[in-house]
Amino acid sequence: FAIAPLIAAICAFVSLAAIPMLPEFTLFGRTIQPLIADINVALLFVIGTSGLCFYAIFLGGLASNNKWSIIGAARGLVAIISYESVGALALIAIVMLVGSFSLIDINNYQS
After folding, report:
1. How many independent structural domains does the chain possess?
2. What is the DSSP letter of 23?
């Protein structure tokens, strides 16, 4: 009951750590990347950590101990799984075009 919102928040903030928010900038002669974690497979990391958020939905449905909330949570899980599979297939085209799973490389390819 109490851990479901915590799991959702952790999933959101952990996946946010690999997303580049600003371009590189120079401060006092040093090049700085405004990024918490520079991961070579950041795209897979973001998909994986955001996929873990379905545990929060499932635990939230189970916590109320009501059959209708469990059915609603199951419907939400089915929707998330179907959306993530289509989204991952759409991202394959970007990875094939750029040739990298790094979000920094994908961002640099756009400019």
Report:
1. 1
2. -
